[in-house]
Specification:
Layout lengths: L2 H22 L10 E9 L5 E14 L4 E6 L1 H4 L4 E7 L12 E7 L10 E2 L8 E5 L26 E6 L15 E11 L3 E3 L2 E3 L3 E5 L10 E4 L12 E24 L5 E24 H8 L5 H6 L1
Antiparallel strand pairs: 1-2, 1-4, 2-3, 3-7, 4-5, 6-7, 8-9, 8-13, 9-12, 10-11, 12-15, 13-14, 14-15
Length: about 300
């Protein structure tokens, strides 16, 4: 085979791989529609109540568990009577509708004063879920078990995405709530409890080389499919829980003066004052999909378990 023919074959192969990566490395269509903004109530200065962005969650469905669920972090639901979920409207008319979303109240405490939501059996694992009754005419999708990726199959260096509403950012009028898409790589997997800075990373957690901010809590983490990955489709790898902070402090001396009757000031002493700053290291903390599954399985009815 001549050199020119070999070069042509190589070029065609490279082009096919490039087009394949371009066509298949994107996330499945409409995955972002399973992600919802979570809001909480707050008191305004005039005494009235308002809602403000509180975090992120995603919709999960399994018929054997009883239907639809909101999956998010434990710290998003803890110590609250209710939250509010924003669903995108299936149809939006700017002439009639003021907003392009439906804000639905989601109670977290039942009439018997018992919580309606369930956290992971391990109190230290920041995953929780609550059953949902979805309103009609919403433009949302859901995730299901076949898309869950086992922690053992998650590889360091693997490309991942996460959808969420950092700092309460949402879509413009007419488009509904469109989550912010961020990306990174799996930079660390924890198989045992490890201290990183002032944060303990428990087993089955992993770090992402990507910035996570307030509001990203509860964001689903999705693997990126390419022709070179073992799994031939994008999968749910886990859920964002927070980020690794870097805490710095500086000591500033504050001068204290005494004002004398004649108007002169006298320096009494110098008092040190410590100022503390927290920086985002760009390492997001994620909890693996295995722990999400264990949390959801608590909703399975006892009779279903007995049949198995």
């Amino acid at each position: 085979m001549s050199l020119n023919i070999k070069f042509m074959v190589f070029s065609i192969t490279l082009l096919i791989l490039t087009l394949s990566v371009t066509a298949n490395s994107q996330l499945p269509v409409n995955w972002e529609k399973c992600v919802v903004m979570i809001e909480k109530e707050r008191s305004k200065l005039d005494g009235t109540l308002d809602t403000v962005a509180h975090g992120t969650g995603f919709i999960f469905f399994d018929s054997t568990l009883g239907g639809y669920f909101l999956v998010t972090n434990r710290h998003i639901l803890k110590n609250r009577d209710k939250i509010f979920i924003r669903f995108n409207k299936l149809e939006f008319d700017p002439q009639k509708d003021k907003v392009s979303y439906l804000r639905e109240s989601c109670p977290l405490i039942g009439k018997d004063s018992k919580p309606l939501w369930k956290g992971h059996p391990n109190q230290n694992i920041d995953v929780a879920a609550v059953k949902l009754l979805l309103p009609n005419k919403i433009n949302n999708t859901r995730l299901e078990y076949p898309r869950f990726k086992n922690f053992d199959n998650l590889e360091v260096g693997e490309d991942v995405y996460f959808f969420g509403f950092p700092l309460g950012v949402s879509g413009s009028k007419g488009r509904g709530d469109f989550p912010i898409l961020r990306s990174g790589i799996v930079s660390y997997k924890s198989f045992e409890s490890t201290w990183i800075g002032d944060v303990i990373i428990d087993s089955s957690m992993f770090l992402i080389d990507g910035f996570s901010f307030g509001g990203n809590s509860g964001s689903p983490v999705l693997t990126r499919f390419t022709p070179f990955t073992k799994t031939k489709k994008a999968m749910l790898a886990g859920i964002i829980s927070g980020h690794i902070p870097l805490v710095d402090s500086i000591i500033v001396e504050k001068n204290l003066f005494f004002l004398q009757p004649q108007g002169d000031t006298v320096l009494i002493k110098k008092r040190p004052n410590t100022l503390t700053f927290e920086h985002n290291t760009g390492l997001a903390i994620a909890i693996c999909a295995d722990r999400i599954r264990e949390t959801l399985e608590q909703f399975r009815k006892k009779e279903t378990l007995e049949k198995k």
